[in-house]
Specification:
- It is built from 12 helices and 17 strands.
- It is α+β, with helices and mostly antiparallel strands.
- The protein has 2 domains: about 10-45 and about 50-110 and about 265-320 and about 335-360 and about 370-380, no CATH class; about 120-230, 3-Layer(aba) Sandwich (Beta-lactamase), CATH 3.40.710.
- The strands form 4 sheets. Strands 1, 3, 4, 6, 7, 12, 13, 14, 15, 16 and 17 form an 11-stranded mixed beta sheet that branches.
- A hairpin with a 2-residue loop joins β6 and β7 (about 95-105).
- α3 runs parallel beside α8, α3 (about 120-130) crosses α9 (about 230-240) and α7 crosses α8 (about 210-225).
- The longest helix has 19 residues, at about 360-380.
- The protein is globular.
């Protein structure tokens, strides 16, 4: 891999202002550090205004191999989570061992749900495996020769300079097919040609322009260079070693599974994936993804114009008291978090039909993790 980039300072996270206290009543069993807490008739009083100060936690104590956590240590975090009416499920793990597994509402943890744009994080991992297996030469490889006749005849000459890395980091320079352009793009007969025919808003390798079209072009590249469907690759390269079920998900008019959206995975499957990433690409003693790929995927190559958070290859990054928190984000609040310095991962699934960005809900999820969950797990 020839691309090199120095890690940029990630956007520091400022926690949102919330009311001083909220009352909530637990309604479901909660699995916490090996203990099961039954429904509690007590009303838990907790302060969310204290989130801002709670992010400042101290040195991390040693943890037992089984990550035994006193259930009481996480009660305030769970009360805060339950108060978020859009949040369906939460899994938190320390060193690969679940310490919280709970459903607040919605389907059980083993049922697949639409993870929306977390698909981009999964796809980026598949690209890294493809490079390791020799199907792709590296992130500096240009994609036009691999796409062949899928490139429009009248394409801007700059299309020929777009690389695998440009697409992974959302720096193709092409106008976005996401947001208000998403419906027009998905209504087209050729999603790859449509995305490549969009006007350039920057040169390839320039600023980050978030676009699901970039990810779908990569999905098509993977299908062409391997001769296999994206579903087969995901099941073979991730599903089998992680021992998770990967159901089929929607395809484009050419029959290629959507590369940057609408994958369906259960919260527990996402937790296995996150745990493998946190462990440097291994799980159960088996190498799944090269450790070097994970490291380079976390490195900042651009910055979101919406959040100012750093973006690498499928991963956003924020800082919590100087510690990097890497995350994948799907519409509605489908989240996977990896905090390597603490050995902590978290999965949150939410109502997939309700926005999470412009409403501020995703900031509440960041606040839940950074202001409540990390301090509680680190101090337990």
């Amino acid at each position: 891999m020839t691309d090199r980039f120095t890690l940029e300072p990630a956007g520091r996270f400022r926690l949102p202002h919330r009311p001083a206290a909220v009352r909530t009543q637990p309604t479901a069993n909660i699995h916490l550090g090996g203990a099961t807490l039954p429904p509690d008739r007590r009303q838990l009083l907790f302060g969310l205004a204290g989130l801002a100060g709670a992010a400042a936690f101290g040195p991390v104590p040693a943890f037992a191999q089984q990550a035994a956590i006193d259930p009481r240590a996480l009660e305030p975090a769970l009360a805060a989570a339950r108060a978020l009416g859009q949040l369906n499920a939460l899994i938190v793990a320390k060193d690969g061992v679940p310490v919280v597994e709970t459903v607040f509402r919605g389907p059980p943890l083993d049922r697949a749900v639409n993870v929306k744009s977390v698909s981009k994080t999964i796809l980026a991992t598949l690209v890294g495996i493809a490079i390791d297996k020799g199907h792709l030469a590296g992130v500096d490889q240009t994609v036009a020769p691999l796409l062949g006749n899928r490139v429009p005849d009248d394409a801007d000459p700059r299309v020929a300079t777009i690389t695998v890395g440009h697409l992974l980091s959302m720096r193709s320079g092409l106008r976005s097919t996401s947001g208000r352009n998403y419906g027009r793009w998905t209504a087209s007969r050729d999603w790859v040609a449509f995305a490549l025919a969009e006007p350039f808003e920057d040169d390839p390798g320039g600023r980050m322009i978030y676009s699901t079209g970039n990810s779908h072009i990569l999905a098509t590249v993977l299908v062409r260079v391997t001769g296999r469907s994206l579903l087969d690759l995901a099941r073979d390269w991730l599903g089998e070693p992680l021992d998770i079920t990967i159901p089929s998900w929607p395809r484009d008019p050419a029959g290629v599974h959507r590369g940057g959206n609408d994958m369906v995975l259960s919260p527990r499957a996402l937790a296995r994936f996150a745990g493998m990433i946190e462990a440097g690409g291994t799980i159960d003693g088996r190498r799944v993804v090269p450790a070097a790929w994970i490291e380079t995927s976390f490195q900042a190559r651009g910055r979101s114009r919406h959040t100012d958070h750093a973006y690498g290859y499928g991963w956003f990054t924020i800082l919590a008291e100087g510690r990097p928190v890497h995350y994948g984000w799907g519409y509605g609040g489908q989240m996977i978090y990896v905090v390597p310095d603490l050995g902590i991962t978290a999965v949150m699934t939410s109502d997939a039909d309700t926005p999470s960005g412009r409403t501020g809900y995703v900031r509440e999820l960041h606040g839940l993790l950074i202001g409540q969950i990390l301090p509680a797990v680190a101090a337990a």
